[in-house]
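[Meeting: bench + compute handoff]

Bench side (C.D.) handed over the final construct sequence. Compute side (W.E.) agreed to return the predicted structure before the next meeting so the bench team could plan truncations. Sequence as handed over:
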Amino acid sequence: QVQFVESGGGSAQPGGSLRLSCAASGFIFSAYVMAWYRQAPGKQRELVAIINSSDTPNYADFVKGRFTMSRDNAKNTVYLQMNSLKPEDTAMYYCRTLSNLHPWGQGTQVTVSS
């Protein structure tokens, strides 16, 4: 079955960096646009970044210039390099395709505070 397993979250100080990973399985990974989402407490889940099958990423304005999304089709894995972290980046981060037919993973928590 389709599955997403996120990892790499943790605590960081403002201005710090973290690298998230997401291992996907159960579908033809290389054929799908992949996305990172995040959900902060009391807020709706929001789209952070996407990357298409040709390795072209696009970013939400609030992370542009700070976050970099990449993919490794040989490993069925996507990554999110997060630099210049801000307290407002604190959230649970999830990866998934854009398909609502695919389930959410457990997410990985990112906390940015001094």
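W.E. noted at the follow-up: Residues 9 and 110 are 5 Å apart (CA to CA). C.D. will use this when planning the next construct.
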